[in-house]
Amino acid sequence: MDQRLAELVEELTTSGEPQLEPGRMKELKRICKSSEEHISHAYHLLLTRLREEHAEMRFSAFQVVQELFARSHQFRTLLISNFQEFLELTVGTDHEQPLPPPKEVAQKLRKAAIKAVQDWHEKYGEAYKQLSLGYHFLKQNKKVDFQDVHARTVAERRREEEKQKRLENIYKEKVKRTEKEMEEMSQEIADTLTEMENCFQLLMPDPLNFGMNEIDPELSKQTSANEARPASPFSSQGEFTPSSLGCMDDEQPCCSKDILPVSQCVTADGNEEADEKPEQEELDGGKRSDVRFSGPALDDDDYQTFVRNHGLISHKYTLDLEISTDIKVQENEDNTAIINSVMDAHKLLRNKFWPSVQSWIQLLTRAGVNDDQLRCAIELKNKMETAMKKYKEMDISFKARKRKVMKASDDDDEDEDEDEFVEVPEKEGYEPHIPDHLRKEYGLEPQAPPKAPVAKASTGAAPLSSGTRLRGNEDELDPTCAAATLKLLRDKLPKLPSPHASESATSETANLEDPDSKRRKLEERAKAPLMPFGLDLHYWGEDQPSAGKILKFTSEHRFWAPSEVEEEVENKEITEMLKTRYITFAGKFEPVKHKCRAPMPDGTLCERQDRIKCPFHGKIIPRDDSGIPINAEDRAREEKMKFEKQAAQPEWRDPEFMREIEAATGLDLGSSKSNGKGQKKKGKKQKYPHLTDLKQQANTSRSRLEKKVFNKGAMKRVMKAMNRVDQRKHEKFANQFNYALN
Amino acid sequence: MLGLMAARQAGLDDPARLRRAECTRRVLSLELNKDRDVERIHGSGINTLDIEPVEGRYMLSGGSDGVIVLYDLENLSRKPSYTCKALFSVGRSHPDVHKFSVETVQWYPHDTGMFTSSSFDKTLKIWDTNVLQPADIFHFEGTVYSHHMSPIATKHCLIAVGTKSPKVQLCDLKSGSSSHILQGHRQEVLAVSWSPRHEYVLATGSADGKVKLWDVRRASGCLSTLDQYNGEKSKASSEAANTAHNGRVNGLCYTNDGLHLLTVGTDDRMRLWNSSTGENTLVNYGKVCNESRKGLKFAISCGCNPEFAFVPYGSTIAVYTVFTGELITMLRGHYSTVNCCVFQPHFQELYSGSKDCNILAWIPAPRDPIPDDTSEKSLPQQHVNPAYEDTWSSSDDEG
């Protein structure tokens, strides 16, 4: 029974579980119940378990103790007679003997032990003097607060408090800094926000301000796919459209009022695509409203032809206006600046202000002070949020910008680049404050004096007429248009040739061969590598007579001069350096696709993907699916090696045979040792597999390094080396007083 | 015991024999008793205890926070359980309280009207018990480790004071000044003790490992220096000459008859000396764990055969027989280092003070009732306290 008791205690305490196994516990209790002898035996077993340097073992042992303590007087007497040690082992009253790792379990053990002591004291304190003494000791000397769930001693609590205080101080400091930062930054943020707000206003007027006449033609609301175009002008124009629709409804066929806005819209939108319909070009000068009303008039005349012209089948259409909420702002010349500034502001908000405001709020909430500041920060954050949301909703498409960038890189558009360069100074004379997005517009009409004032008047927001004027411009811009050539002929800019002029000039002369050479050039360029600028490029094609010559100054001393001075020294290397460039050619990385695939002892194939040589199986050779080399000589070589290896091991040391002998004699003959690493690891069985492995925990990179670094041999070696260095120094400088001393 | 009583009645035995036998039995059965408690007054460790020799009723305790408390040990309540009440205390709020740790307290040997206390605040105070005012204060150069008043002196009224300085000072209560200086030690004097046999003989133990015996009438030098090797080895190594311990000597105690002197040192040894010859009796007590940096107060029983020594041993108290060096038992109960213990000779009780602020009373266990015919009745009464009962669940498989 004693044997069984020991087994039970060992099993119970090495389970590593937070709860005891009830079956075993029951058996243990039954054994203990049978006689006092067994109780004292169990007590001693448990005490040895409690003394183990493993918190899980102690915890389990403590739980068993708790069970027995509640049941047996004998056990209580025994335990209480050694209550000091019990407290040391479970509560950790001795600071020189702290509870062993793992930490969490130790904490749990401590809590449970303190709770148990309290319970025991309540129940048995009267009868067992030492128990109550222990309780008072914990309470008054160790100042354990039994109500405190964390079961901390005073020292721990004080440490916690100090930590808290330190944190508080840090927070205070941080808050102060934040306040300052906020003061500085909030103004900036507010400015940015206002800027953004204004830009939004410009890009898309507030629905409440729709009564205004000036409506950005660029602003269009996208509607459902089929009706998108016709709907846009109306929807943007707001409330008066339905009425106009209504009034048109009764007298005109539906299709007509459908169609016209289509064309109208195309023109008004100022799209850069070339216009198809000549009749619409004639409508240039007219205002949009005029167009609308002229449309039906035209229809009335011959809507049959009109229907046919537009490829319409029926003239009975129902118009569905689906005003979708998502807005799309198209970027074009007119609003580039605004969009740019919006983008900048948004970027600033997102990248700079947003994180900082976020961090302020975090810090202020964590510090738990300054609700004023906090409110301020939250307000800022909300504002920024709305602004950013708005920006997102706007969904600005940056197509134009991207195209422009591409153009700049494209060599085809060199002339256009020129074009930009050319126009600016020219215009400056007339209008110093032309906004960026209108530049193109004016660039080509410097000689139209009547139009200049109009343009000036409409710089801020493009008026309705801008669309039409723009159309005219476009005609001129279009090289295929007659208007353009006319224009070119008309304006003769003496110093700087107009882009079209140059283009037309070249196109007329070398139009035929140009595409060919251009393409070739393009191809070459695509092939050519991009190199950073260097000295060799700087002196490209130049011959430098002075390069590589080193000038030596003659000594200016009166009589102390070197015997002969070569004033100029030619250095080939330097000359070379100016003309050469080193280009490292590392080749291209090609991932290894093959595997070693040598057969392993466990039946699998080696998975290593080395390029040439596997560190375990030598040179990688082609093998078939079962790992046998494909080439005959490889196979033969492998066979030979295997044979040699077996020959190296004496016959009688056949591992199978050895194992049998071992099993029979019970002696370790080292058969497992000869059999590679895999088995060795398996052979080393953990003593208590359920417990947390403390060695594993202690086996950190730091400890391993420590083992290496503070290794006795290593220390000695280092010492020797340092001594040697010292010695050498001593030898070298022995005649100097400050080294001679040590 | 009945046999002893009968023999005593018949006049066969010396009357002292019964007493001695009973005393010994009681001392051997000392245990921590739940019936006796000492009121918890001290907020910090207890350094010293003293029971007045006249009645053996009042006990003084000195704490390391400078507090002195007086307890009444007598149980007049006629109930078995008794908590020794604190009659008064010189608390922190008292105007004349010691500033620092009180190292030694001692009653005036002949009367409870006066007691003395010495402290790390470099003073020795003579207190009037009744008004609780210091009657006199002696100031010293260094901290006071220990002082002692002769328990039998009739011709002088000297207090021997061991301080941080190597000189032992003798303060005369009659004149209120320190009258003598005894020079001879090299380091601080941690323990002093007057002989209970010769009123002029004083023993002092110092941190230099020496124990010296003085006759205070002859101030020029000491009577003898105790030598742990009894003069054999000292010829070879002059350095270790005449040392009683290899570490500091921090405890001295005469046996009751004054014939022997017991010393403890930080070399974890205890030695018994013949006080008249200064000879090491070479009794082996084994290791006596002693890590105290200050004086250690231990006690020797009185009126027993053999006599016992109660020595603080870490957080326990070891009980040795004085003359054979046998370790009888370890008294466990304290949770921290025990600093002092004192023996109450009339009722064979032991009181011990420890760093864990507890004063524990070790009381002789009551005799087990002799089982007789009425055992059926008395058995249930044995387990009056339900806490002593086992609570195994009744069903077999439950366990």
TrEMBL record, chain A:
<dbReference type="GO" id="GO:0000993">
    <property type="term" value="F:RNA polymerase II complex binding"/>
</dbReference>
<dbReference type="GO" id="GO:0009411">
    <property type="term" value="P:response to UV"/>
</dbReference>
<keyword id="KW-0234">DNA repair</keyword>
<keyword id="KW-0862">Zinc</keyword>
<feature type="region of interest" description="Disordered">
    <location>
        <begin position="269"/>
        <end position="296"/>
    </location>
</feature>
<feature type="region of interest" description="Disordered">
    <location>
        <begin position="443"/>
        <end position="476"/>
    </location>
</feature>
<feature type="region of interest" description="Disordered">
    <location>
        <begin position="494"/>
        <end position="520"/>
    </location>
</feature>
<keyword id="KW-0175">Coiled coil</keyword>
<dbReference type="GO" id="GO:0006283">
    <property type="term" value="P:transcription-coupled nucleotide-excision repair"/>
</dbReference>
<feature type="region of interest" description="Disordered">
    <location>
        <begin position="663"/>
        <end position="705"/>
    </location>
</feature>
<keyword id="KW-0863">Zinc-finger</keyword>
<dbReference type="GO" id="GO:0008270">
    <property type="term" value="F:zinc ion binding"/>
</dbReference>
<feature type="compositionally biased region" description="Basic residues">
    <location>
        <begin position="678"/>
        <end position="688"/>
    </location>
</feature>
<feature type="domain" description="UV-stimulated scaffold protein A C-terminal">
    <location>
        <begin position="527"/>
        <end position="631"/>
    </location>
</feature>
<feature type="coiled-coil region">
    <location>
        <begin position="157"/>
        <end position="195"/>
    </location>
</feature>
<keyword id="KW-0479">Metal-binding</keyword>
<feature type="compositionally biased region" description="Polar residues">
    <location>
        <begin position="501"/>
        <end position="510"/>
    </location>
</feature>
<dbReference type="GO" id="GO:0005694">
    <property type="term" value="C:chromosome"/>
</dbReference>
<dbReference type="InterPro" id="IPR049431">
    <property type="entry name" value="UVSSA_C"/>
</dbReference>
<feature type="region of interest" description="Disordered">
    <location>
        <begin position="220"/>
        <end position="245"/>
    </location>
</feature>
<comment type="similarity">
    <text>Belongs to the UVSSA family.</text>
</comment>
<feature type="compositionally biased region" description="Acidic residues">
    <location>
        <begin position="270"/>
        <end position="283"/>
    </location>
</feature>
From TrEMBL, chain B:
<dbReference type="InterPro" id="IPR019775">
    <property type="entry name" value="WD40_repeat_CS"/>
</dbReference>
<keyword id="KW-0677">Repeat</keyword>
<dbReference type="InterPro" id="IPR015943">
    <property type="entry name" value="WD40/YVTN_repeat-like_dom_sf"/>
</dbReference>
<keyword id="KW-0234">DNA repair</keyword>
<keyword id="KW-0227">DNA damage</keyword>
<dbReference type="GO" id="GO:0009416">
    <property type="term" value="P:response to light stimulus"/>
</dbReference>
<protein>
    <recommendedName>
        <fullName>DNA excision repair protein ERCC-8</fullName>
    </recommendedName>
</protein>
<dbReference type="GO" id="GO:0031464">
    <property type="term" value="C:Cul4A-RING E3 ubiquitin ligase complex"/>
</dbReference>
<keyword id="KW-0853">WD repeat</keyword>
<dbReference type="GO" id="GO:0000209">
    <property type="term" value="P:protein polyubiquitination"/>
</dbReference>
<keyword id="KW-0158">Chromosome</keyword>
<feature type="region of interest" description="Disordered">
    <location>
        <begin position="368"/>
        <end position="399"/>
    </location>
</feature>
<dbReference type="GO" id="GO:0016363">
    <property type="term" value="C:nuclear matrix"/>
</dbReference>
<dbReference type="InterPro" id="IPR042238">
    <property type="entry name" value="Rad28/ERCC8/Ckn1/ATCSA-1"/>
</dbReference>
<comment type="function">
    <text>Substrate-recognition component of the CSA complex, a DCX (DDB1-CUL4-X-box) E3 ubiquitin-protein ligase complex, involved in transcription-coupled nucleotide excision repair (TC-NER), a process during which RNA polymerase II-blocking lesions are rapidly removed from the transcribed strand of active genes. Following recruitment to lesion-stalled RNA polymerase II (Pol II), the CSA complex mediates ubiquitination of Pol II subunit POLR2A/RPB1 at 'Lys-1268', a critical TC-NER checkpoint, governing RNA Pol II stability and initiating DNA damage excision by TFIIH recruitment.</text>
</comment>
<dbReference type="GO" id="GO:0043161">
    <property type="term" value="P:proteasome-mediated ubiquitin-dependent protein catabolic process"/>
</dbReference>
<dbReference type="InterPro" id="IPR036322">
    <property type="entry name" value="WD40_repeat_dom_sf"/>
</dbReference>
<dbReference type="GO" id="GO:0005694">
    <property type="term" value="C:chromosome"/>
</dbReference>
<dbReference type="InterPro" id="IPR020472">
    <property type="entry name" value="WD40_PAC1"/>
</dbReference>
<keyword id="KW-0539">Nucleus</keyword>
<dbReference type="Pfam" id="PF00400">
    <property type="entry name" value="WD40"/>
</dbReference>
<comment type="pathway">
    <text>Protein modification; protein ubiquitination.</text>
</comment>
